[in-house]
Amino acid sequence: QVQLVESGGGLVQPGGSLRLSCAASGRIFVINAMNWYRQAPGKERELVASITRRGSTNYPDSVKGRFTISRDNAKNTIYLQMNSLKPDDTAVYYCNADVWSDSSHGMNYWGKGTLVTVSS
């Protein structure tokens, strides 16, 4: 019904930058909050950025000042600009969204993830 597809992951050196994208497609009436999560092997999945439909954002202290989430509602797409990357940022990054197919049916969706590796 709805798919979230992440892109933009890859290998980057410490201090470098990457920009991730997440495009939503399918039966979409409106997308409310959208989020980026990440999960490293053996670690818990953690929220790294959140954005409301109106553009209000939240970040944990671990990424605040380095990561920026944004969205383009016309394209049903969100982005995560990651600067000053550290080895601790290495993880699979997942897109998450609350999607309503009509005024009465909403569901939470996850993308399959994109791998970000920060290493010299």
Describe the structure.
There is one protein chain. The protein is mainly β. The protein has no helices and eleven strands. The strands form two sheets. Strands 2, 4, 5, 6, 9, 10 and 11 form a seven-stranded mixed beta sheet that branches. A four-stranded antiparallel beta sheet has the order 1-3-8-7, with no helix packed on it. A hairpin with a 4-residue loop joins strand 7 (67-72) and strand 8. The protein is elongated and about 50 Å long. The mean pLDDT is 96.
Topology (elements, then pairings):
Layout: E1 2-7, E2 10-12, E3 18-26, E4 30-39, E5 46-51, E6 57-58, E7 67-72, E8 77-82, E9 91-102, E10 105-110, E11 114-118
Parallel strand pairs: 2-11
Antiparallel strand pairs: 1-3, 3-8, 4-5, 4-9, 5-6, 7-8, 9-10, 9-11
In short:
The protein has 120 residues and is mostly beta strands.
